[in-house]
């Protein structure tokens, strides 16, 4: 089983993670005879792995027919069964998360493991998160290829939606710890991946970076219609779940821009009333009460992150810009945080601070380009990793 003994391994630490929401609604929300595979880079040495599977936003139980984990690039591809209570097939009940049995699998920092799941019967695909980073991709195949080293080209495709797999923990050394990155679609972008690589190669080698991000989410509101259901839960519903990760001692909060840019009035969009537009004081109180206070009670250091430029975004106006600037100034000056990272300063145009620098705009005037994501990762203080 590739088990190893090492007295230096003493605790569980999350080495990879995502959030759980509902992927974009389409006419079809079920799959059958489907294999999902997610290649995950392991950042710590360890002797055992365990897996959190989430059906948090599902309304029906999901049956995993079988699941395997296997190290990529080994001389032989040896899938190890992932079980729950000793059973190879298990349920993820609607509205909940489950933690697998631990498996004995020796891993070395830098290894990549495939986590594969096969769903034989009709499966409600309601619990998944889209990751916008080109550096993190999964794949699916029609048919049972759960234990196969490679998927057949004609029956498979790449995917950026991560279903059901929520967190991977490794049993590792006491020195290792996790840093959580919490946010919206900006945190679904690749700055998290660049920070992960920076922590792995240029940090102390003992920090994992855990992404907890859902596109479209807001601090104070959520959409309860299928049109925008993929925009996820509001902060008060998300944070108690997503702020948890084994071995975590700190969290970066980068959230709030959607509260500012979403409302347009019911005459434009019946699901986006002006009553949803908060004041900056509302946003600050939300961060304090919903994020900072619970995080501190959980023993986490809390880091703030300034909001990125929005000049040119389709709902941009001077009022929204003034809100963003005021909120950012609070983040920079607030004693509520243990520190902050000034993402805004790292990517804005020096001549027009309302806007991105030319090569930092992805093109929609809201999301960062790959160059901007690299700068954001570099802006994170060295002592955090």
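Sequence proposed for the structure above (385 residues):
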């Amino acid at each position: 089983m590739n088990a190893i003994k090492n007295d230096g391994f003493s605790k569980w630490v999350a080495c990879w993670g995502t959030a759980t929401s509902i992927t974009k609604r389409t006419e079809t929300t079920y799959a059958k005879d489907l294999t999902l595979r997610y290649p995950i880079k392991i950042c710590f040495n360890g002797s055992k792995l365990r897996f959190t599977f989430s059906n948090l936003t599902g309304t029906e139980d999901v049956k995993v027919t079988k699941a395997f984990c296997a190290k990529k690039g080994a001389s032989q591809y040896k899938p190890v069964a992932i079980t729950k209570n000793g059973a190879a097939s298990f349920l993820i009940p609607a509205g909940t998360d489950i933690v697998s049995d631990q498996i004995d699998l020796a891993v070395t920092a830098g290894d990549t493991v495939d986590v594969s799941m096969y769903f034989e019967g009709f499966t409600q695909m309601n619990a998944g998160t889209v990751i916008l980073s080109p550096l993190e991709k999964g794949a699916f195949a029609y048919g049972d290829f759960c234990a196969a080293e490679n998927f057949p080209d004609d029956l498979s495709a790449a995917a950026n939606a991560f279903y059901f797999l929520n967190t991977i923990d490794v049993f590792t050394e006491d020195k290792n710890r996790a840093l959580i990155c919490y946010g919206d679609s900006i945190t679904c972008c690749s700055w998290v991946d660049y920070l992960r690589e920076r922590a792995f190669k240029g940090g102390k080698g003992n920090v994992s970076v855990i992404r907890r991000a859902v596109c479209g989410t807001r601090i104070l509101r959520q959409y309860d219609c299928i049109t925008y259901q993929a925009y996820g839960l509001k902060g008060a519903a998300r944070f108690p779940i997503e702020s948890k990760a084994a071995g975590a001692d700190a969290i970066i909060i980068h959230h709030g821009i959607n509260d500012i840019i979403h409302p347009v009035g019911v005459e434009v969009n019946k699901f986006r009333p002006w009553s949803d537009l908060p004041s900056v004081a509302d946003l600050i109180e939300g961060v304090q009460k919903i994020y900072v206070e619970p995080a501190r009670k959980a023993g986490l250091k809390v880091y703030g992150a300034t909001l990125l430029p929005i000049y040119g975004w389709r709902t941009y106006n001077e009022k929204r810009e003034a809100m963003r600037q005021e909120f950012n100034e609070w983040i920079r000056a607030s004693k509520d945080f243990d520190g902050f990272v000034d993402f805004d300063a790292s990517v804005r145009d020096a001549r027009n601070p309302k806007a991105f620098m030319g090569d930092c705009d992805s093109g929609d005037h809201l999301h960062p380009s790959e160059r901007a994501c690299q700068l954001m990762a570099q802006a994170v203080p060295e002592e955090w990793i």
